[in-house]
């Protein structure tokens, strides 16, 4: 029985890895094509994704898979605000003009990592997100002169 479970785990790991490699290449090609367009389509958003995976190992693989995929970046984990809430993974999506689609893609990735999560669906419309807003150059030039070059927006 243990041998069959180990073989199933290895098979799942190989299948997930193959799917992830395909996704990395597809996202890389999309990002490369977008870079050469006058309107790149980059409309970044930040998503506060409620995690369904529970173990540190699964969280590691989920967040690493997101970061490995061009156009997305795992920004960090946050503990649940309440006892019955979920821990959050903060994700930035460079091509976030449709945040609900990004959330659904994250849910799909999480379910591919742990197929049993399909029994616990996520309602993408209830997941918090916000658009990235460029605040422009610092208008207080006296203050800006004291900032390191990496922190100035001019």
Automatic annotation (TrEMBL):
Keywords: Cell membrane, Membrane, Transmembrane, Transmembrane helix. One of its GO terms (molecular function) is monoatomic cation transmembrane transporter activity. It comes from the Bacteria. One of its GO terms (cellular component) is plasma membrane. InterPro entries: Cation_antiport_E (IPR002758). Its main location: membrane. It is a multi-pass membrane protein. NCBIfam families: PRK12654.1. Belongs to the CPA3 antiporters (TC 2.A.63) subunit E family. This is Monovalent cation/H+ antiporter subunit E.
């Amino acid at each position: 029985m243990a041998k069959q479970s180990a073989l199933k785990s290895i098979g799942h790991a190989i299948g997930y890895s193959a799917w992830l490699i395909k996704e990395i290449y597809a996202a890389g090609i999309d990002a490369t094509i977008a870079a050469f367009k006058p309107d790149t389509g980059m409309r970044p958003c930040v998503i506060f994704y409620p995690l369904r995976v529970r173990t540190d190992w699964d969280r590691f693989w989920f967040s690493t898979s997101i970061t490995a995929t061009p156009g997305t970046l795992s920004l960090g984990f946050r503990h649940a605000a309440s006892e019955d809430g979920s821990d959050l993974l903060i994700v930035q999506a460079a091509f976030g003009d449709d945040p609900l689609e990004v959330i659904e893609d994250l849910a799909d990735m999480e379910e591919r990592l742990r197929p049993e999560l399909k029994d616990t669906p996520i309602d993408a419309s209830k997941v918090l997100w916000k658009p990235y807003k460029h605040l422009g150059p610092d208008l207080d030039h006296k203050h800006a002169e004291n900032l390191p070059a990496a922190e100035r927006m001019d």
